[in-house]
Fold this sequence. Notes:
Helix content of chain B: 25-40%
Order of helices and strands of chain B: EHEHEHEHHEHEHEHEEHEEHEEHEHEHE
CATH architecture of chain A: 3-Layer(aba) Sandwich
Oligomer: heterodimer
Structural class of chain A: alpha/beta
Distance between the termini of chain B: 43 Å
Order of helices and strands of chain A: HEHEHEHHEEEHHEHEHHE
CATH class of chain A: Alpha Beta
Number of strands of chain B: 16
CATH topology of chain A: Rossmann fold
Amino acid sequence: MQAVxxxxxxxxxxxxxxxxxxxDHGIAIRLVAELIDELNLRENTICSTCVGCSVFLYDFxxxxxxxxxxxxxxxSATGVKRANPDKFVFTYQGDGDFASIGFAESMxxxxxxxxxxxxxxxxxxxxxxxxxxxxxxxxxxVTTTSPFGRNKEYYGYPIKIAEQVALCDGTAFSARxxxxxxxxxxxxxxxxxxxxxxQLNGLGFGFVEILSSCPTNWHMTPHDAHExxxxxxxPVFPLGVFKDLMEK
Amino acid sequence: xxxxxxxxxxxxxxxxxxxxxxCQCYFGYPITPQTEIGEYLSAEMPKLGRGYxxxxxxxxxxxxxxxxxxxxxxxMTSSSSCAVALMQETLxxxxxxxxxxxLVNVMRAGPGLGYVYPAQGDYNQAVYGGGxxxxxxxxxxxxxxxxxxxYTYRAFYLARKYRNPVILLADGLxxxxxxxxxxxxxxxxxxxxxxWALSGAKGRDGKAIYSCARDEKAHIQKIKDLFKKFEVIxxxxxxxEEFETDDAEIILTAFGxxxxxxxxxxxxxxxxxxxxxxxxxxxxxxxxxxxxYELASQGKNFAVVxxxxxxxxxxxxxxxxxxxxxxxxxxxxxxxxxxxxxxxxVENILRTKEGEYASCx
Lengths: 248, 361
C-alpha cells in the first residue's frame, strides 16, 4: 500500500494537540513542518518562539527552539542568526506578539534586513488570554475589552501588518495569506516557501501574515469562523504579495 | 595582546577584553557613560568577522544576546542604570533558561533618568534584580581599569561554566578614567557547551530552551535546582579582598571604585592612630557574608562606604547578624566621597560610640 498522507518528519511523534477545536494554528504549523521537510532544513534550523497561543510550537515541531519573552522573538532570532549565519532561523508569532508589544523589534528587524523569516498569525485578538482587543481587531468587533465594539475614539484603528513590513527597505518578501479554504491554504504554503527561500538566498527579511480563525474567542463554530475570515477579515486585510525580491 | 602596560580608558579596556575573551557578538544601544564600549566594538568586531548590531533599544539588545547565547555563543551587551532597568525581564528569562549572558553596567546616577555623573545606586538592581520570580545573577565589581579587564575575562568564563548571567558592575568613574593596565592573556579555559546549546538538531531530536512551566512539581524542582547551582557558585566563586583587618577595630567596607578611597582612608586613619582595616567584596553576588560574619565575631565593627543610600550596608548588617556595629558613610551620587570626608566620618563614628550611625554626606 502506498502512503499518500502522513505526519511531516519535522513534527514530533505522538504530540498532544492542545489548540482549541477549529483553530488554524494546526494548519499553519503543519505547513511550516511540511516546508522544513521539503527544503531539508530540519537539522539546520533554530526557531525563536513567542508568548501567546504560538508559545507551544516546540510541543509540535521536532526542531531546536528558543523561547523569547513576549514580543521579542525577532530580536532573539537576530541574535541567533548573527551568531550562526549558516543556520535557518525563523520566528512563529501571534499578531499581539509581532505587531503590538513587539512591533518595534519586528519592524527594526525588517528595516535592518535581518536574514531571517517571520510568520505572524493574525486572528484579530489576544487568543491565549481569552479574546481581548489586539492591534488587528476589526472596527466594530466586540472583544472582552471592547464590549461595545472597536471604535476610533477609544481604540484607534487596526494595523495592516504585511503592508507595513513591505515598506521596509530590508524586507525581501512580505505577503498576507489565509487558511479558510483549500486554495488559500495552498497559496499560504507557496508564500511561506518564498519567505523561507529569500532567507536561504540571503536576500533579507521574509515575512508572511496568516489570517487565522479563533472560533473559541469569536464564539463561533469552526465553519462560521472561516466564513467570518472570508466575509469580514479579508476585505479589511486583503490577501496578496506586497513585496517579493525573488520576482525582480 | 601581551603583558605590556597601556594607558587606557575603562570602557575601552572592557571592550578590548571582551574581544580577547572571544566575544562573538555584541548588541547594544548608546547611553552615557558607557557608549565607548559600543563605539570601540563597532570598529573592531567587523574586522574580526564577528557580530555587531546597533540595537533599536536595550530591550532588543538583551534579547539579541539571549538568542545568541542560546546557541552557546560568547555574547555581551553593555548599558547603564536606567537602561539596564529595561533589561530586567529578559535577565529573569536568561536565569531560568540558564543562558551565559554577559552584561556590563557602567552605572550613572538614578533614580529615573538621573544624570551621567558616577554613582553606585544599582547595587540592588544587580544583586537582587528587577525581574520577576526567584533568580540569582553573578555580579562582579571592578575597582580599577586593570580589574575591568580581569573581571571581563572572568565574566565570560563564569557565565559559561555555570550557565548563568553575569553582570560586570562598573561605574562612570571607571568607565571614563584612564589608567595603565595590561591585557595579558585570557587565563580561563574554554567551556564545552555542546550538551545544551542549540545547533540545529543534526542527527538528534529538537531541543527547546524555555522558561514556560506547565508542570507545577517540575517547576518547583527547577527553581530548587537553580538555587542549588548558586550554592555551588557561592562555595567556589565568592571572592573578596581584605586590607589590614588583623588588628582592625573598624573595617571600612566598600565595593567597586570606592575601594580606592577606603584604601587611602585606612592609611590616613592608621597615621592618626586609629586601627582601621578594609573589606571589599569582589563578587557582590555571591556575597562574602561568611567572611564578614567571621570578622564581626572577632568584635570588629564595620563602616560601609558607598555612593547610594545604603544598599550594600543592609547586606553587611545582615551578614554581621548583630554581633557588632555597622555604620554607613554615604552620598547618593555625584562627587565621589573624598578621603577627608571618609576619615572625618570614621572619627565621628568612633566618637559617638552609640551604635548605629548613618552619615549621609
